[in-house]
Design goal:
With 82 residues, this protein is α+β, with helices and mostly antiparallel strands. The protein has 3 helices and 2 strands, in the order βααβα.
């Protein structure tokens, strides 16, 4: 068991969300999602890490193929089956 955590700077994430074109991808909604991430997800990641669950940080500003390859490589490195 492991957690794959995609890291992307806020500016790039906002750009990608807006480019998706969904009705709920507007500035106030996106800002609210980032607040939720900070308040909810980050503490969960910290707790999981403290409990010995591997957190695999992936640099998500790469191409989709590069992100995929990095995920596979890091999962294999910790003995996870793909």
């Amino acid at each position: 068991t492991a957690v794959v955590h995609l890291n992307l700077d806020i500016k790039s994430a906002k750009h990608r969300l807006v480019d998706r074109g969904r009705m709920d991808d507007h500035e106030p909604a996106i800002s609210e999602r980032f607040k939720e991430y900070e308040l909810t997800i980050k503490p969960i990641l910290k707790t999981l890490k403290e409990d010995g669950i591997p957190i695999i940080d992936i640099h998500a500003e790469q191409t989709e193929q590069q992100v995929h390859d990095e995920i596979v490589k890091k999962l294999l490195a910790i003995g996870q089956e793909i």
